[in-house]
Amino acid sequence: MAITMTKGQVGLTGNTAVAYAMKQINPDVCAAYPITPSTGIIEDFSGYVADGAVDTELITVESEHSAMSACIGAAAAGARVMTATSSQGLALMWEMLYIASGMRLPIILTDVNRALSAPINIHCDHSDSMGARDSGWIQLYSETVQEAYDNIFLAVRVAEHPRVLLPVMVCLDGFITSHAIENISLIDDAEVKQFVGEYKAAQHLLDTDNPITYGAMSLPENYIEFKHEQSKAMAGSKEAVLDVSREFGKKFGRDYGLFETYRLEDAETAIVILNSAAGTTKVAVDALRKQGMKVGLLRPRLFRPFPFNEIAAALKHVKVLGVLDRADSMSGFGGPLFNEVRSALYDLDARPKTVGRIYGLGGRDYKLKDAVAVFGELDRIRETGKIDTLTKYITL
Amino acid sequence: MATLKELSKQDELLSGGHRLCAGCGIPPIVRLVLRAANGPVVATTATGCLEVGTTIYPYTAWRIPWIHSAFENAAATISGIETAYRALKKRGRIPEDKNIKFIAFGGDGGTYDIGLQALSGALERGHNFLYLCYDNGAYMNTGIQRSSATPFYSNTTTSPAGKVIPGKQEWRKDLTRIVVAHNVPYAAQASPHNWSDLSKKAEKALNIEGPTFLNVMSPCPLGWYTKPEDSIKLAKLSVDTCYWPLYEVENGVLKITYKPKEKKPLLDWLKPQGRFKHLMTPENRHLLDKFQERVDLEWQRLLDLDGKRL
User: Fold this and answer.
1) Considering only CA atoms, which of A62, A123, A64 is closest in space to residue A93?
2) Cβ atoms of B56 and A219 closer than 8 Å
């Protein structure tokens, strides 16, 4: 796809922008399988391959399970590897997600968030990536097309960071972000190349003079040590995310950090929310601020590892907090974001009252009025000091 | 092809000290095939006896780069490795004159059943690799459960010879023919007792550009209820009774590579194996006859195709 910039700006959909980032990175191998709404990424990228705009080897596999398996094989062979999927595709990869992270392979996957069956539904919610939240992948969430585009470059650097060596999943909202056109700034090809550098695996399968064994069976004598190392790398990757974000910010002017706060400094009530719905919530914040309400927002970007301390510190002054999940973990106790945030606040001496709300499943719209209604509810809790319903569904 | 003397001088690429059972057919097959590569080789193995028995951390029997990732995806994993090789070679990160061969190993469970989709995909895409299935006729690693490769009437832990149902009721899947239907340049059946036939086929497969396939009979004393020292003899009997014909399909032309001078009765192969013990009673005589008839039919089908383009 020919992309024309005007004054450094270009109108792209989320999928096109991610494919363009992949083109600029020109990975060694891409293995993928089509699934709505992420298909556009691989369609565009296939075009780049067919036109010789990249010299990536593309493997059009017969399933997502094989996509991730081929990514694992290629990454273990020392290649820089990327793929994209959604929903059932990510679910089918589930077994291999754990193997990619357990083998410490820096694979990059774009997950265009879509609801999981049943009932089958092609629209946005976060049940797919939330289902993979414990698979050992670093997860970066994106509010906008620009952020999704930028996250791809950050993901490569974080994944391949010598102290990290873990796969990274970049998440953006299906259709809302993947198919909507937004004006974004592109980074020069040369600057991308310089930023991501060339991947050189310390050891790999194609070094036949120094044979290594990947994926040996590990019994109770050492399995837990492997997991301990992986767990430390995951916890430590937060620092790498911060370092790489800072470097990216210095070079390209967009410093993302671990999460975004919006008018949070003096907020009495606040919403915590992921991805595109944060945009709607910000509009609500502005509208309510005009009416004199002290409202704010926190939007996590890095969900895995979860920056517990930093998020707790940013929220400690808030009186009432509404955590909005676009996924239900079916635990009978709200969504995954609610549980993480609530847990993060536990060690504060005085912590905000925190309620969980599940919204927008299967692409149900989350509108300005919904955000306003949540803030209204939070305000009533602030006034009365009483929580009627700790967790519930909204946008029904 | 290398002579036995030459083969014996080559480096052993699968070291001794692994934990596969005494009498297991897998190690001699793997060792012969790795030798046939005669140069740098990278392999993957599906979950199963070969993987578990060769790599209990911190030990590995593999003197070549090797990876195991899961059960159903050996063909997809090797697809990724082989593609990375082409990508990195194209970009000058692997020397132009370096020629690496790629092999995926899987048992019958990992190949006929759970790995069939990944195998089909990799064959269709035309990756340059050899897929080798060691067929011991059941899920031996998990304790002898029936697979789609399990022989007729075989007693397994999930197709037990019971009071009402006498073992596995279905004829085995003919995987070699399924692979051939992908129009791959080379596919063959082999057996470890005929080392020169197996070596020849492996060498051919590894030197042909594109996906190739070997289906190799692999005796299993544990699951067949046989003596370890009889394994190679039993492999030979599976071929001499024509249960496991040795043949190849090269560029679409089928050729039987070994025709027994005298076709032995199937009973000769079945009788020493505990998994067929229930067939030896007078009341189950008709089952034996049915089994023999089917073997005769399949053998005749192959004879009819010998030398022909499929």
Assistant:
1) A64
2) yes
In a domain, B310, yes or no: no
Domain end residue (candidates: A231, A252, A273): A252
Are A81 and A227 contained in the same domain? yes
Residues in chain A within 8 Å Cβ distance of B80: 29, 31, 59, 69-77, 81
Sort residue B92 into left (φ over 0), alpha (ψ -120 to 50) or beta: left
Are A357 and A291 within one domain? yes
- In terms of domains, do A317 and A206 share one? no
- Domain-located, residue A4: no
DSSP at B275:
G
Mutation site for A-interface testing, chosen from B20, B66, B69 by largest number of A Cβ within 10 Å: B69
Structure tokens at B20: 């596969």
Nearest to A29 among B51, B72, B84 (CB): B84
In tens digits, what is the pLDDT along chain A, a chain of 396 residues? 567 777 779 999 999 999 999 999 999 999 999 999 999 999 999 999 999 999 999 999 999 999 999 999 999 999 999 999 999 999 999 999 999 999 999 999 999 999 999 999 999 999 999 999 999 999 999 999 999 999 999 999 999 999 999 999 999 999 999 999 999 999 999 999 999 999 999 999 999 999 999 999 999 999 999 999 999 999 999 999 999 999 999 999 998 999 999 999 999 999 999 999 999 999 999 999 999 999 999 999 999 999 999 999 999 999 999 999 999 999 999 999 999 999 999 999 999 999 999 999 999 999 999 999 999 999 999 999 999 999 999 999
* Count of all residues that appear for chain B in the document: 310
CATH number of the domain bearing residue B297 = 3.40.50.970
A236 with A284, same domain: the answer is no
User: Measured between beta carbons, which residues in chain B are less than 8 angstroms from residue A212?
Assistant: 65-66
How many domains does chain B fold into? 1
Q: Cβ B65–A205 below 8 Å, yes or no?
A: yes
CATH number at residue A386: 3.40.50.920
Tell whether A219 and A85 lie within a shared domain: yes
A96 and B85: CB-CB below 8 Å? no
Write the residue in B44, B72, B121 that is nearest to A61 by C-beta: B121
Range(s) of the domain holding residue A106? 9-252
Residue A247 and residue A263 in one domain: no
CA distances from B143 to A92, A373, B71, B220 (A): 27, 59, 16, 12
Count of CA atoms in the C-beta half-sphere (13 A) of B169: 5
Contacts of B93 in chain A (CB under 8 A): 78
Asked if residue A302 is part of any domain, the answer here is yes
> Are the beta carbons of B42 and A205 separated by less than 8 Å?
yes
Print the domain residue range for B178.
4-305
User: What is the count of structural domains for chain A?
Assistant: 2
ipTM field: 0.97
